[in-house]
């Protein structure tokens, strides 16, 4: 066949596509689409032109797209997605995206013909051009449109890592927007995918753009629903990854959270407190950033006057987190005279409060005899023995750790002063040693071993 005859269909087709009457275009497309499919499937030199014409048709109305699909174009386009010619490959993906985006049935039709695997191969190709990635991302987003189910669930585990790489390695707004849309739609189909998304390090890439927005909302709003919602989001983000604490701090969230501790609405005070608690669960440097806010400890002290269980428990968590830090951070708690107010919560007889008081004493007696002496002076030893009555193994273990810390400092002090261990003497005076002796036969091996160590090391009882 001469090149002249081969070119005739294109001249004819271009005239059709230039026609302003949709009905004429659609009527002609019935016959033209089959001819174009033959060109696509048979004449490689003209694939690019045929594709571009069909691309224009599928970019029109749903009726026009229907004629393209009915002509059997989809299987050919799936094959052309693997074409060595980049333009042909790109146009094939673009056209399939138009078809899939037209309606749910076409989306499923395209999926049933196996578009997903070659499309994921394109998205995984490190040599892909930016334009190709944009088109392929858009195509995948159209496969996630409409009601579920859409994308085949067994294949989703292979999709998420690819989306994660696209998110990590791109700054193109269309790709980023497309990937975020796809992830959202996949999660909407099944929230079981959330863990897969998290495991593939998607969250850290999203956070840098989220935290500044949350910070602005926190700074510029007085609406309680917004404040509560923002605090909740920040808290949940930190709980997913404490690596985000530094990002939160860098965005000046702490000063605003501190002022919210004196908000007139209790739920806002609690919301701010829970975020601060999570931040204080970070490293020592991050803890110090909170403590460096001059208003923090005074505001915290004021909350001890509020008799609410949730606030009380979170307050105790905050103190535990601070005292898990450095010697100077423990000293800040001592200087603020917070511990005497904390132990008042023990009247609530709640295991959570008991555990946190025991943790605070244990944490605070790690570094120095001076700090240990302060806590003993606040009644730490009688408190610990009272807590030994607990049926909770975890509380008992923490109490024994605290007693070991205190008795250890007593040994150091007795050597320095050439006297008896002042803390062993205090325990004997309390007539409480039998509680520790009984624990030597505790069902928990670690508790039993720690009790034996205390009795044998500090009281020379075998």
Automatic annotation (TrEMBL):
GO CC aspect terms: cytoplasm
A biological process from GO: protein import into nucleus
Segments annotated as ARM repeats: 72-114, 114-143
Keywords tagged on the record: Protein transport, Repeat, Transport
Protein name: Importin subunit alpha
InterPro entries, A to Z: ARM-like, ARM-type_fold, Arm_3, Armadillo, F-box_dom, Importin_alpha
Superkingdom in the source lineage: Eukaryota
Gene3D superfamilies given in the database record: Leucine-rich Repeat Variant (1.25.10.10)
Alphabetical list of PROSITE patterns matching this protein: ARM_REPEAT, FBOX
UniProt-recorded Gene Ontology molecular function terms: nuclear import signal receptor activity
Family in the record: Belongs to the importin alpha family.
Domain F-box: start-end pairs: 2-49
């Amino acid at each position: 066949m001469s090149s002249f005859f081969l070119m005739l269909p294109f001249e004819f087709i271009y005239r059709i596509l230039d026609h302003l009457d949709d009905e004429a275009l659609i009527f002609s497309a019935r016959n033209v689409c089959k001819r174009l499919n033959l060109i696509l499937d048979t004449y490689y030199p003209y694939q690019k032109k045929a594709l571009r014409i069909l691309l224009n048709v599928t970019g029109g109305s749903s009726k026009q797209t229907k004629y393209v699909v009915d002509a059997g174009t989809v299987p050919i386009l799936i094959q052309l997605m693997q074409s060595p010619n980049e333009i042909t490959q790109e146009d094939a993906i673009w056209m399939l995206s138009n078809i899939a985006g037209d309606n749910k049935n076409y989306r499923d039709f395209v999926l049933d013909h196996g578009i997903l695997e070659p499309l994921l191969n394109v998205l995984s190709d490190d040599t892909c051009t930016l334009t190709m990635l944009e088109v392929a991302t858009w195509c995948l987003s159209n496969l996630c449109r409409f009601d579920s189910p859409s994308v085949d669930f067994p294949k989703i585990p292979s999709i998420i890592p690819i989306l994660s790489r696209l998110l990590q390695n791109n700054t193109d707004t269309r790709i980023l927007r497309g990937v975020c849309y796809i992830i959202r739609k996949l999660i909407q189909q099944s929230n079981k995918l959330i863990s897969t998304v998290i495991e593939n390090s998607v969250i850290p890439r999203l956070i840098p753009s989220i935290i500044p927005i949350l910070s602005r909302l926190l700074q510029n709003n007085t609406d309680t629903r917004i404040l509560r919602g923002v605090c909740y989001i920040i808290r949940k983000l930190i709980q997913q990854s404490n690596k985000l604490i530094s990002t939160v701090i860098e965005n000046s969230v702490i000063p605003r959270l501190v002022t919210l501790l004196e908000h007139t609405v209790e739920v806002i005070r609690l919301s701010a407190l829970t975020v601060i608690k999570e931040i204080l669960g970070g490293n020592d440097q991050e803890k110090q950033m909170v403590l460096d806010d001059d208003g923090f400890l005074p505001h915290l002290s004021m909350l001890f006057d509020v008799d609410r269980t949730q606030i009380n428990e979170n307050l105790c968590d905050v103190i535990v987190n601070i005292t898990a830090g450095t010697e100077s951070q423990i000293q800040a708690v001592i200087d603020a005279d917070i511990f005497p107010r904390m132990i008042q919560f023990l009247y609530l007889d709640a295991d959570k409060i008991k555990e946190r008081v025991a943790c605070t004493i244990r944490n605070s007696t790690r570094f120095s005899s001076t700090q240990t002496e302060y806590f003993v002076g606040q009644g730490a030893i009688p408190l610990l023995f009272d807590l030994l009555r607990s049926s909770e193994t975890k509380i008992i273990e923490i109490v024994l750790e605290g007693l070991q810390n205190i008795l250890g400092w007593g040994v150091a002090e007795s050597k320095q002063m050439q006297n008896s261990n002042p803390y062993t003497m205090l325990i004997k005076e309390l007539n409480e040693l039998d509680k520790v002796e009984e624990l030597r036969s505790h069902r928990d091996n670690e508790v039993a071993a720690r009790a034996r160590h205390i009795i044998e090391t500090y009281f020379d009882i075998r």
